[in-house]
Amino acid sequence: MIIGRLISWALIGAAFVVLGHDLLQYLNSETWHSILAGELWFRLNPEGLNLVQAVIQRYVWPALWDPVIVTLLLWPAWLVFLVPGIVLLLLFRKRRKAERRGYSA
User: Where is the chain membrane-spanning (predicted)?
Assistant: First the structure.
């Protein structure tokens, strides 16, 4: 449970870091451009992006790359981090003792 919460807070923190980067870019250029997940990944590790694409297309399922993963890579990076972070936070939230026993409060 605690590992799930740590991962969720790390994802939410990463989302706010990327959103902060986008806001600073907006203040400098006065035009909004949210960095895309694929663009961020390519800036951080271009070889890793190419490797993951090759592995998924050759060994996993070629159709998974183009409609699914490419769509995610074209979303804003802060959104790609924030949504799974919130979902994991809700899944691994602390529950009251009454909820654990099956009683409704």
Answer: 68-92
